[in-house]
Amino acid sequence: QVQLVESGGGLVQAGGSLRLSCAASGSIFRMNAMGWYRQAPGKQRELVAGISSGQRINYVDSVKGRFNISRDGAKNRVYLQMNSLKPEDTGVYYCNRYCSPAGCPDALYESWGQGTRVTVSS
Fold first, then answer.
1. pLDDT at position 2 over 90
2. Terminal CA-CA length for the chain
3. Nearest to 36 by CA among 122, 116, 120, 106
4. β-sheet with 77-82: strand ranges across
5. How many angstroms separate the CA atoms of 24 and 108, rounded?
6. Looking at per-residue confidence, does 109 or 73 come out higher?
7. I need a labelling partner for 6 at 20 to 30 A (CA). Which of 27, 62, 92, 112 fits?
8. Any bridge partners for residue 96, and if so which?
9. Of 5-9, 92-96, 97-101, which range is least confident?
10. Judging by beta carbons within 10 Å of its beta carbon (0-12, 13-18, 19+), is residue 23 exposed, middle or buried?
11. Under DSSP, is residue 61 helix (H, G, I), strand (E, B) or coil?
């Protein structure tokens, strides 16, 4: 079973930067597209960025020009560099499979990890 572990979150002021990392067992990063998702309290989880095994990338409009997703399949890692952070970026960030901007069928997602909290103060 694939285990996903997110790290790198923290408390930052608006305009600051964070780099999130996702580590996974197995071959998920080599064989599948991966994405970063975030969820604010009381809100539905949303896709932030996705990257395919062929390096095709998609970002939600609100983070374009500020966030960068990358992957290292050989190391089973996916990263999210977040710059110029805004309070509305606050949430718990998760990594998981990426299928399309519309999301994946539920059966295709791996078990969700604990996520890493990002809090951006004003």
1. no
2. 40
3. 116
4. 4-7, 18-24, 77-82, 67-72
5. 16
6. 109
7. 62
8. 35
9. 97-101
10. middle
11. helix
At 121, list the tokens.
């103060």
Q: At residue 17, what is the residue type?
A: S
Task: Name the token pair of 98.
Answer: 């990426």
Instruction: Tell me which residue has tokens 């949430």.
Output: 91
Tokens of 27: 């071959």
Q: The tokens 């078990």 sit on which residue?
A: 111
The amino acid present at 105, given as its one-letter code, is P
Strand partners, 46: 38
What's CA 65's distance to the chain center, in Å? 16
